[in-house]
Amino acid sequence: xxxAMQYPDYVxxxxxxxFQGIIASPPTDLNGILQREAIYCALGRCAGRMxxxxxxxxxxxxxxxxxxxTNSEYRLLKRRIAWLLGxxxxxxxxxxxxxxxxxxxxxxxLTDRSAGSDSAVRLAAVIALRDCxxxxxxxxxxxxxxxxxxxxNLYPVISESETVESKRRVFKTMNSIVGxxxxxxxxxxxxxxxxxxxxxxxxxxxxxxxxxxxxxxxxLVEASKEHSVVLHPLVVMLIQEGMSPGARAQLDIDxxxxxxxxxRNCPSLxxxxxxxxxxxxxxxxxxxxxxDMDAQANSNHLLESYYLIDCPxxxxxxxxxxxxxxxxxxxxxxPTSIKDLTESLELLxxxxxSALAWAESIHSSGLFASLLKYALASK
Length: 379
What we know:
21 helices, 72% helix
């Protein structure tokens, strides 16, 4: 690459000449495959300079033929082809047919289970796919017909990957796809989410992998917005386990991120019979508010989000426990935290709908006495 930048007048024609020398006929032995792989590598590293010299439109049929070859010696070349497409596909001026052909070739490499492929080849396709999707010139319209196929075939790559880092790379590619697809992901929510509980269980104490799962579900929620209600049973399970004592130190930030996204995109807290809902997370959240000063700010913020959706329902569910938790938190809070707690209570009272929903509880919990004592002491 350095030579191409310093001596473009020499290197560009040389690479073009080498390309023309190999492209006319397929390699017949391992040496020919290695030579072609080396030239593809050079072309990929110099993609920015070679795009005006080599036409990807005419090159794609050759790449597709090589990508579909079942010869076991082609595995190295297939890895390079996937990587190459990730470098060369960044051009919004290409026709729809070329974009479609690129997705077809990548999908062929990703799904190839013949002797001419292996897990490393498929992982290369995963990484190349992410490179294509994250580019500014990514064309979602050409990709949309392949959306379901790509997502369905990424899960097997997770299962066959032997390292946590490889699995994380697959999830990062899935995150990129979901983010680019946006609302188009809605019809696929249930099949996409179905394998996740098993993957979560298999991850056990691999917390880096569990973080990727939490981030992926958060991205699904944000992409599907109000339609994310179908994911709530999964969301509740992940948050409960992510905030459990054994995992909280490693997963609390991503669990809270998922929780906030789920509430922000929740149209209603009314539970669906026989199905877990975000309402199931309120009692432990209330308990945390009154018992864990370190988590007090996060708990208070989440409760405010619940109030904005359906404050009367929250008070109906646990007004006594909630205001008792506020009383305990208020008595233990630092002066800087009391203002936040007071503002949260003001929001609760404003949105309650009726004083009857909180009047008795604010007295019996001791919260009113605590607030009055603090107000008098502050004069």
